[in-house]
Amino acid sequence: MAAMTDTRNRGNGRIYRQAGVDIDTADALIKRIAPAAAATRRPGADAELGGFGGLFDLKAAGYADPILVASTDGVGTKLKLAIEARNFSTIGQDLVAMCVNDIVVQGAEPLFFLDYYATGKLAVDDAAAVIEGIARACRDCGCALIGGETAEMPGMYAPDDFDLAGFSVGAVERNNVLPKPQEMRAGDVLIGVASSGLHSNGFSLVRKILADAAQQLGAPAPFARGASLAEALLTPTCLYVNSALAAIRAAKVRGLAHITGGGITENLPRILPKGLNAQVLLGSWKIALVFPWLADTGGVDEREMLRTFNCGIGLIIVVAAEDEAICFETLKRHGSESYKIGVLAQGSGDPRVEYSGRLFA
Q: For residue 275, how many other CB atoms are within 10 A of its CB?
């Protein structure tokens, strides 16, 4: 048999690698992350990678008359900070949390997750750190990682740059969809579940504050002992799935609000009916030191803090007053720190948040 001649580098011949895309590297990444994805198996999904589409069996997951709930999100410019710090250990959880927390507040159980990772030049170790973090977070909240897309796009992104997005689908039985504004009453209690810090919102302002104050990411964090500024700011977003679902099962939960961009000010009214306002007592919960530090360093007033950051509360539960105790007990049992932060009160017109007290003592 005549020897085959390799003409790929002769004349005008080209290979994909010369254009900046290395298929072999992408294959190596898939092999690297396959065990992490397989560890997220759950009823309804086997978490196998490599097909053209991910499959999920709702019947096998135990649903009779389900409504599907979908959410897609990213991590905003917190990703830029992670890239600058070369710290990718937590950003995967941020991505999952931003999606599944939006699903659970509808009363739904997150079922499966897909990710999108796009970069100028694929670095297997960096990408694997991100996707393995995604898989860990999926496993922690019982959500199967059933697929995703890794795109190497030279010219679109700088070689050391990448973008990240996620997509999740959950399900809830038709009669259990939240919120239930028709059941909300004046006197219902607002339970705030603690955040872990900034979560994944407001980082454009955070980065401006850091730049204006000439703060170095590798320097010790003034508000977190034993951590660098980057490590403290990259604390991952809380996963509220397990504690929220447990509270829904245990108590008369009327609604839940995920406190993201817009803070309590913008997010809580989204679940309330006309004619009811939220009376929130500032100072009724413990606030992580990162928030007063940002306010002081950046000269950000209280009103702007409350409509930009979560300010220490990542999830708010509206629960019937008679179920306040069982809700607190359930949240504590599932490892969530929570506080009574206010009540619903009679109002007029569109719902709003009415604050009393001071955010920072």
A: 14
